[in-house]
Design brief:
By secondary structure, the protein is an alpha+beta fold. It is built from seven helices and seven strands, in the order H-H-E-H-H-E-E-H-E-E-H-H-E-E. Helix content is about 50%, strand content about 20%.
Length: about 250
């Protein structure tokens, strides 16, 4: 009996160790993935700065953008590598300004694919949130939309005052990012927010939406999806509700 118990304990220890390594691997992969977009943005900003220095005496705009992206990299890394911390520091975040900044950074991609960007911003108040996390959520959603649409496609970015669909007493801001791409097939929809699941063959690691969902759950909210793959009515729409209150975050699934 004693031997059997020891064996069970050793097996339990091995299982726990394996789970710990798997969790560590996911954290490392998440960090690597989430740093890709800011690093790309930094590269773009520094490239523009280099060109600006050749003939323009006012490179401050691009330099500031590079510094902001670097700060976001640090905040994201700290957030992911500190999973037991309740939440990163919060401050007032101007949502339309964040959306405009992201679209500006990917202006080269927008112009290359001749994508029509339709911005609809109602008068909205700032929300108390982690600026780095909010920016990363919208960066992930914007990039997905830009990659999904065909050349000459359309992406809608809409921000407006709203209420939480699950708790109508909660006021806040809703951001909707939609595209007229091919839509997401039914067999993929349930797995879309799983870590490491991706529909981008040969591209992506399947962590962007998962990380976005984790960040939103800290605010007591979630990323919601509506999509259709039907011919002539295809498209995808992601909706994010940002509450004004600071309710206890939803427990991670």
């Amino acid at each position: 009996m004693f031997t059997g118990t020891s064996s069970a304990r050793r097996q339990s220890g091995k299982t726990a160790c394996t789970e710990d390594w798997a969790a560590s691997g996911r954290l490392i992969a998440a960090v690597a993935h989430e740093l890709k977009n800011p690093i790309q943005a930094l590269g773009n900003a520094l490239f523009l700065l280099e060109k600006c220095l050749r003939g323009d005496a006012l490179p401050n705009r691009y330099l500031k953008a590079a510094q902001e992206e670097l700060g976001r990299m640090k905040e994201i890394t700290a957030s992911i590598l500190s999973p037991y911390r309740e939440s990163p520091p919060r401050r007032a975040v101007n949502i339309p300004a964040v959306l405009d900044s992201i679209l500006e950074f990917y202006d080269h991609k927008i112009k290359f694919k001749r994508i029509q960007i339709c911005r609809r911003y109602s008068s909205v108040s700032p929300v108390e949130a982690s600026a780095g996390e909010i920016r990363q959520v919208f960066t992930n959603l914007v990039i997905n939309a830009l990659e999904a649409v065909p050349t000459g496609g359309k992406v809608v970015v809409h921000a407006f005052s709203s209420r939480d669909w699950s708790s109508p007493e909660r006021d806040g801001i809703r951001v909707v990012i939609g595209d007229n791409g091919p839509g997401i097939r039914p067999e993929h929809r349930r797995r879309l927010f799983e870590p490491f699941f991706t529909t981008k063959t040969g591209r992506g690691t399947g962590l962007g939406l998962w990380v976005s969902q984790v960040f939103m759950e800290r605010l007591g909210s979630r990323v919601r999806l509506r999509t259709s793959a039907r011919p002539h009515r295809a498209g995808t729409c992601f909706s994010v509700f940002l509450p004004f209150d600071r309710r206890t975050p939803i427990q991670a699934r």
